[in-house]
Amino acid sequence: MPDLLLELFSEEIPARMQAKAADDLRRLVTEKLVAEGLVYEGAKAFATPRRLALTVHGIPARQPDLKTERRGPKVGGPDAAVQGFLKATGLKSLDEAKIQRDPKGDFYIALIEKAGRDAIDVLAEILPVIIRTFPWPKSMRWGARSGKPGSLSWVRPLHAITATFGPETEEPDVVKFSVDGIETGQTTYGHRFMAPAAINVRRFEDYEAKLKAAKVILDPQARKDIIFADAKELTFAQGFELVEDQVLLDEVSGLVEWPVVMMGSFEEEYLAIPDEVIRATIRNNQKCFVVKDPKTGKLTNKFVLTANIEATDGGKVIVAGNERVIRPRLSDAKFFYEADLKTKLEDRLPKFEQIVFHEKLGTQAARIKRLQRLAAWLAEWLIEPQLQVGKGLYGGNSAQYANDVEQAARIAKADLLTEMVGEFPELQGLMGRYYALEQGERPSVAAACEEHYKPQGPTDRVPTDPVSVAVALADKIDTIVGFWGHDEKPTGSKDPFALRRASLGIIRILASNGIRLPLLKSIDVAWQGYAANEAGVIGQSDRFAGDLLAFFADRLKVQLREQGARHDLVDAVFALGGQDDLLMIVRRVEALGKFLESDDGKNLLAGIKRASNILGIEEKKDKRSFDGAPDAALYSLGEEKALAKAIGEVTAEASAAVAKEDFAAAMTAMAKLRPPVDAFFDKVRVNDDDAKVRENRLKLLNEIRSATRAVADFSKIQD
Q1: Concatenated DSSP letters of 459-475
Q2: The pLDDT of residue 150
Q3: Is-contact 212 218, C-beta < 8 A?
Q4: Residue of 538, 416, 428, 413 whose CA lies nearest to 481
Q5: Which residues neighbour 505 within 8 Å (Cβ) at sequence distance 6 or greater?
Q6: What pLDDT score was predicted for residue 534?
Q7: Global pTM value
Q8: How far apart are CA 696 and CA 698, in angstroms?
Q9: In CATH, what number does 591-716 get?
């Protein structure tokens, strides 16, 4: 079957747009093909700095014929309706129609056959529409036609359209159409400098090979592989090691069509500034990779650049040009760093009085005061009555721990006012750590300046230093409570203040460090901090705390689901009420999940569900609940007595285990209910003819439901 080759050759396609543009082109064309009945075998799109390309394999040469039935008026209906039916269907007379019998009467039916069109004609119709409506985030008009109505808007001037269609064994045809005066053809162009001449192409294999001969690597992944392999080899050959950077690699591969890797250098004096600053400077300004010494792990005064040309001088001029640009950038960074060190972090804090964090949440200065207050409370909670974090570092020295937490909370945001963070915002926190160490702060205090922002995503590192943990929790809890309490909640897909990320960060910190923290109390303490600042507060925290706790429950479901746990088990635990210790919820969910994987767990769940279903039906019928203890005197069968005895023993045993937070033992206790529950349903008729016996047995079923609520609400668990 025939294949399609489509190339849109333009002046430039920004690197950041290429991947999405290629995917959009593939999606838009293939969706249209399928909608037209042209089901294809495979499609792949490509992008370079000057072209979007698409190949679609195995397209039928022709659309299938389409047969449809159209219902007309009743037999004997008005003449006007009949004439309208004949005109709409193209029938010459009613003799060409069928008659369909129906309970409401007999109706005329027209069988309409629509012949399929050649695929090349369909392509000539759909492709110009796709090109004209292509979803570029930014586009432009150009040239003499730009002022005319309906002129093409494209990311950069579009110069040529290649569109061919045909089977592998034959010469392909050009899919003929034009867009804004640009006629389709079989002509493309090679590398802008090394092979700019026109190239005649036929189908994809021919097109890709000729482009490569003209110094253009079409496949973005191939360009990445070349850059990465050559950069690794070049640095290794000189005894260095490349600092890998996938994001930068993606970007650089979109800047070149023929990657040529080279190495440059800069003065060693710049190695006195932090490695991260050097990397940010070289990465952001010149899109170059940095190089480290494999023995020390520290950066060297080398960098790796990717050119788009094979220079006749071996790249000397290109390297020298990059060095000339990088040198003053590093000089500026060195100046910023040294200037920042002249002012202590705490001496910068008064400026925060004039900086608003958020119009409803007050200034940055007020925010810092809240962080200090909340972090101090968290420090007490984390270290008393037993140190939950940092046992090796503080050994129960609560006074030193409290002092370190207070100082870290005080200066953690101060680096936001430094020259370096102003130049490179992505270094916030990190520069705070460097500056804190330089001014003599304790290592844990300095670490908290950086780590209190963590984790910032599902793969980011979770802080484990006890000071970092306290300040990180305070920062995230204050943010969530502040915005939530002022009715700035996430809605749908919108979360402008990243509250979902902050809540997941809290969950990960608590779970990873094994921290017991009462969330409701934490919310209340955080909200009290707002009462003393200029933002003001409305009402008490209990106005929104329950809703916020449910928000955490939803985030916990997301976290556990990503770890392979069942979200319905979270519902089953939260349904018990009063559950705000996330660590205990996680452990209870884990124990419940393991229990339900066992035969005892599966069968007991089935029994509990059966009991709940019977109770639900009978409660609805009687319009009452069956609470209260059953009357032992009404037990007439051994299975009733055995179940009642088991419920009493299991309830006591499971409750005691839960009180000790031994959830595995609680599940083991629950398993003892399985045999008597199975026997009860096998031998006992619940809806006995004797009303008192029936009521007593329903109360016994309710006892099953009540007993299992010691560990979870089993009605929330899906089968």
Answers
A1: TSPPP-SHHHHHHHHHH
A2: 83
A3: yes
A4: 538
A5: 454, 455, 456, 472, 476
A6: 44
A7: 0.80
A8: 5
A9: 1.10.730
Cβ neighbours of residue 189 under 8 Å, at least 6 residues apart? Answer: 9, 50, 159, 160, 196, 197, 198, 199, 214
Q: How many CB atoms lie within 10 A of CB 395?
A: 10
Backbone dihedral angles phi then psi of residue 172, each to the nearest 5 degrees: -75, 160
* 136, β-bridge pairs: none
Q: Which residues contact 312 (CB under 8 A, 6 or more apart)?
A: none
Helices 466-485 and 398-411, axial angle in degrees (round to 10): 50
Q: DSSP letter string over 339-367?
A: HHTTS-GGGGGGGGGG-EEETTTEEHHHH
pLDDT in tens, 567-602: 788 888 888 777 788 888 888 888 888 988 988 888
**Mean confidence (pLDDT) of the chain:** 91
CA 12 to CA 21: how far, in whole Å? 13
Angstrom distances, CA of residue 282 to CA of 202, 323, 708? 42, 10, 61
| Segments in the chain below pLDDT 70 | 384-397, 532-538
How far apart CA 446 and CA 437 sit, in angstroms, is: 6
Quick one: what percent of the chain has pLDDT higher than 90? 63
Q: What is the pLDDT of residues 681-690, one digit of tens each?
A: 899 898 988 9
Could you tell me how many residues make up the chain? 719
Calculate the dihedral angle through the C-alpha atoms of 562, 565, 567, 569, rounding to the nearest 10 degrees.
-160
Q: What confidence score (pLDDT) does residue 81 get?
A: 85
CA distance 365 to 650: 55
Domain edges within the chain:
3-62+118-213, 66-114, 220-340, 346-564, 591-716
The residue among 145, 169, 167 whose CA lies nearest residue 157 is: 145
- Identity of residue 219: D
Which helix (DSSP H) or strand (DSSP E) does residue 260 occupy? strand 260-265
Amino acid (one-letter) located at 186: Q
* Cβ proximity of 52 and 27 under 8 Å: no
699-702: which pairs have CB atoms within 8 A and are 24 or more residues apart?
699/626, 699/627, 699/628, 699/629, 699/630, 700/630, 700/640, 700/643, 700/644, 700/647, 701/611, 701/614, 701/615, 701/626, 702/615, 702/625, 702/626, 702/627
Q: Is residue 6 within 8 Å of residue 162, measured between CB atoms?
A: yes
What Rg do the C-alpha atoms of the chain give, in angstroms?
36
SS3 154: strand
Span between the terminal Cα atoms of the chain, in Å: 48
